[in-house]
Design brief:
CATH class of the largest domain: Alpha Beta
Strand content: 15-25%
CATH architecture of the largest domain: 3-Layer(aba) Sandwich
Strand order of the largest sheet: 8-7-6-9-10-11-12
Number of helices: 12
Largest sheet: 7 strands, parallel
Shape: globular
Length: 329
């Protein structure tokens, strides 16, 4: 019997995993609402594995405590693992497994939804019409048809976004170190060429040392005036202060963000009765051409089902001593 302690469990997480757990009699799950961090890691004593999410703090200190508690497996119920100290996990002989492809279409569709909502001012129109104001001032949008979409990163999610843009009748260009052979309608270009040519830029690359603050004041200057920027990948890809400067300089026609740098305390939490410590989020929300959502690109029935199934299959593979290709090393 593999005992797993789930951290940062929301009601939808528990419902999704419980709906499938009957198929896995060798797995026992207990759920916590607490986030994983050094001060809560000690709660894993007596468990073989823990399950964490994209907002969990799985750094050096957390892993050391998990190791002391006897944990042998960290299950990430997400694709990203930039919040995990992989080297420390390897040193402690703790296996890390993730869900690399739960539903790339879910995130890509949300990216396009952000592009459309921000560029067509859907958020403003919704509020205005609810107040019986049917005027169109400030609502002028842009066609995406026959415009150029620049996709940064053409893995599964970026490829799905490229296909959506192609279906909209857009010319699609992309930048990636590794070209995706399935995208025969995409033209690969240099990063500078993508910045200069794109009417819509959508970020779908992982957060790594060489992609941290990929969007900064220098790369913003290289973009077209009136560009649409969408980020559904990781907040650290965009230097927020520089983005705000670019928005104020009228560089962007629209910005859609499902992720942003200071989101850690906000993700999946109701903070409506709190005073926000930083003004960055408020400043972004003050712009009429910016739409922000709360890291919900993955949040569909299909994606949650795939996350549950893959995570439990990863656990079963660990029990059997098998590999799935979902290991992080």
């Amino acid at each position: 019997m593999l005992k797993i302690l789930f951290y940062d469990t929301k009601s939808y997480d528990k419902e999704s995993f419980e709906s499938k757990r009957g198929e896995y009699p060798d797995i026992q799950i207990d759920y916590l609402k607490s986030e994983l961090a050094p001060n809560t890691a000690k709660l894993a004593k007596g468990y073989d594995a823990i399950c964490a999410f994209v907002s969990s703090e799985v750094g050096t200190q957390t892993i050391e405590i998990l190791h002391e508690c006897g944990v042998k497996l960290i299950l990430m119920r997400c694709a990203g693992f930039n919040n995990v100290d992989i080297d420390k996990a390897n040193e402690c002989q703790i296996k890390v497994m993730r869900v690399p492809g739960y539903s790339p279409e879910a995130v890509a569709e949300h990216a396009m939804a952000l592009a459309l909502a921000a560029s067509r001012r859907i958020h403003k129109a919704y509020v205005r019409v609810r107040e019986n104001d049917f005027s169109l001032g400030g609502m002028l949008g842009l066609n995406l048809y026959q415009k150029t979409a620049g996709i940064v990163g053409t893995g599964k999610i970026g490829a799905a976004m490229a296909r959506i843009c192609h279906g909209f009748g857009m010319k699609v260009i992309a930048y990636d170190k590794y070209e995706n052979p399935s995208l025969d309608f995409v033209t690969y270009v240099t990063m500078d060429e993508l910045l200069a040519q794109s009417d819509l830029i959508s970020l779908h690359c992982p957060l790594m040392d060489d992609t941290y603050h990929l969007v900064n004041i220098e790369t913003i200057k290289k973009m077209k005036d009136g560009v649409i920027l969408v980020n559904t990948s990781r907040g650290g890809l965009v230097k927020t202060e520089d983005l705000i400067e670019g928005i104020r300089a009228r560089k962007f026609f629209a910005v859609g963000l499902d992720v942003y740098e200071e989101e850690k305390k906000n993700v999946f939490e109701d903070r409506s009765d709190e005073i926000m410590e930083s003004s960055i989020t408020a400043r972004l929300l003050s712009f009429p051409n910016v739409v922000i959502t709360s890291h919900q690109g993955f949040f569909t029935h299909e994606a949650l089902s795939a996350i549950s199934e893959t995570t439990l299959n990863n656990a079963m593979a660990f029990i059997k001593g098998e590999t799935t290709g979902n290991e992080v090393e």
